[in-house]
Design goal:
- The complex is a heterodimer of chains A (111) and B (111).
- In chain A, 0% of the residues lie in helices and 57% in strands.
- Chain A has no helices and eleven strands.
- In chain A, strands 2, 4, 5, 9, 10 and 11 form a six-stranded mixed sheet that branches.
- With 111 residues, chain B is mainly beta.
- In chain B, the strands form two sheets. In chain B, strands 2, 4, 5, 6, 9, 10 and 11 form a seven-stranded mixed sheet that branches. Chain B has a four-stranded antiparallel sheet with strand order 1-3-8-7, with no helix packed on it.
- In chain B, strand 9 and strand 10 form a beta hairpin.
- Classes of the chains: A mainly beta (111), B mainly beta (111).
- At the A-B interface, strand 4, strand 5, strand 9 and strand 10 of A face strand 4, strand 5 and strand 10 of B.
Chain lengths: 111, 111
């Protein structure tokens, strides 16, 4: 069936370095992708999204890249800070309502 | 304050005892959804609702019921809970933009 997966369950980076979290999806009909951040004890929080007619979208310190050819997207966090420590989920929508989440990558930021 | 609220936040119950987890949003969102989160599996969609009286199954609907009689409320009903429904549950809502706003979560334990 349809799936969304992350390449690494954990990622450890030094404070100030850039972080890259990867995600792959299986359904070529997926047309909307979202990255969420989940801190301990809280619900997921929206970070950035991208639609299938785009390759790149930038926010504040975050960039999402979408490669439809290989069905891959990535989240880049610039100048990673201790407050970025969390679990990051990618999710895909097909047709707007059904959402598939990946398993998540836990980001550790070393001071 | 724009928010999604869930009640209760924590619940311990026994097998077979019917329970309801409430979800309410104050953002006038059309779309609402329920997820369960289990270690290593990310978030899996249980049910979603596109608007009042319109609901559909997600990936793991077995053992759950929902209703959408009012726009702001989307309760999750477990008619006969079983231990495999022990999980962390999240309700979410979204408007036209597809970005979902999540509640704080309900941790359910079924003994």
């Amino acid at each position: 069936g349809e799936s969304v997966g992350l390449h690494l369950p954990t990622l450890s980076v030094q404070e100030g370095d850039n972080s890259i979290i990867n995600c792959a999806y299986s359904n070529s009909a997926s047309d909307y992708f979202i990255w969420y951040k989940q801190e301990s004890g809280k619900g997921p929080q929206f970070i950035i999204d991208i639609r299938s007619n785009m390759d790149k979208r930038q926010g504040q310190r975050v960039t999402v890249l979408l490669n439809k050819t290989v069905k891959h997207l990535s989240l880049q966090i610039a100048a990673t800070q201790p407050g970025d420590s969390a679990v990051y989920f990618c999710a895909s929508n097909t047709g707007g309502f059904k959402t598939i989440f990946g398993a998540g990558t836990r980001l550790f930021v070393k001071a | 304050e724009a928010q999604v609220t869930q009640n209760p936040r924590y619940l311990i119950t026994v097998t077979g005892k019917k329970l309801t987890v409430t979800c309410s949003q104050n953002m006038n969102h059309e779309y609402m959804s329920w997820y369960r989160q289990d270690p290593g599996l990310g978030l899996r969609q249980i049910y979603y609702s596109m608007n009042v009286e319109v609901t559909d199954k997600g990936d793991v609907p077995e053992g759950y019921k929902v209703s959408r009689k009012e726009k702001r409320n989307f309760p999750l009903i477990l008619e006969s809970p079983s231990p495999n429904q022990t999980s962390l549950y999240f309700c979410a809502s979204s408007g036209q933009g597809n970005e979902q706003f999540f509640g704080p979560g309900t941790r359910l334990t079924v003994l």
